[in-house]
Design a protein that fits this description.
alpha/beta, Rossmann fold, 2 domains, 9 helices, globular
């Protein structure tokens, strides 16, 4: 299938590893020029070597003061206005439910605020061109409510953001959507440790929650995101696509 996104310019945040890496690879296979944004230049360089079309690299910690504004200025001055935005940043920082408001706000900014700042900068040019695709990363936890409360709440906000912002911009063929991964194998994270250290526990998890009987892989996410960035996804406006193996 021709996704008809050759020569488009995409920004992918968190592109240095795992899901972000696979998204960048999938987009480059479709002829997209990708701006790889992440904290570690070496990781971005490694990903760039895997792309069919080498991209641009931007290494920075977007949680630092003025970092998002600096990245936006750099992109606009050096590469122009992106046609595609993929917001792959997210995480809990291990912040528990009974943490301070400031700690909750930190988690919210990481999962929602950074993406909103980027969208504010680039959506106007998408509207002017009457073409744009914006994909956010949600999570299965917005249905199960498992996990750290600030993180789950922030991802629920992502879902609401996708649905409501899409109502404002989809009439201009600027399509906002999201994918919601389930249990994905990521080295060093909970499920990878469980699979290695306690095979019986992971089998019990499969039996109770994941009938497909395997963990997802980052490579399961990339092609779906590429599709959401395509012309063919225009009627998926506001959709939040679960990529979770049927897990609950």
């Amino acid at each position: 299938m021709n996704l008809n996104i050759q020569n488009k310019l995409a920004l992918v945040t968190g592109a240095g590893q795992s899901i972000g890496r696979e998204i960048a690879i999938s987009l480059a296979k479709e002829g997209v020029k990708v701006i790889l944004a992440g904290r570690t230049l070496e990781k971005l360089e490694n990903v760039n070597k895997e792309l069919e079309i080498p991209g641009y690299l931007y290494a920075a910690d977007l949680m630092e003061e003025n970092a998002v504004a600096d990245m936006i200025k750099h992109i606009q001055s050096q590469y122009g206005q992106p046609d595609i935005l993929v917001h792959n940043l997210g995480g809990s920082f291990g912040v528990p439910a009974l943490a301070s408001t400031a700690e909750w706000q930190k988690v919210w900014y990481f999962n929602v605020g950074i993406a909103h700042e980027i969208n504010l900068a680039f959506i106007p040019s998408m509207i002017e061109k009457t073409w744009g695709r914006i994909v956010h990363l949600s999570t299965l936890s917005t249905k199960t409510y498992n996990g750290y409360a600030p993180y789950v709440s922030a991802k629920c906000a992502v879902d609401g953001y996708v649905k409501s912002v899409n109502r404002e911009v989809s009439k201009h063929n600027v399509i906002v959507s999201a994918v919601a991964p389930g249990a994905i194998y990521t080295e060093g994270r909970h499920f990878s440790k469980l699979q290695r250290e306690n095979p019986e526990a992971i089998q019990n998890y499969f039996k109770e929650h994941l009938p497909i009987n395997r963990l997802g892989q980052a490579s399961d996410i990339g092609p779906a995101v590429a599709y959401l960035c395509s012309d063919q996804a225009s009627f998926l406006a506001g959709s939040i696509i679960g990529i979770d193996g049927g897990g609950m």
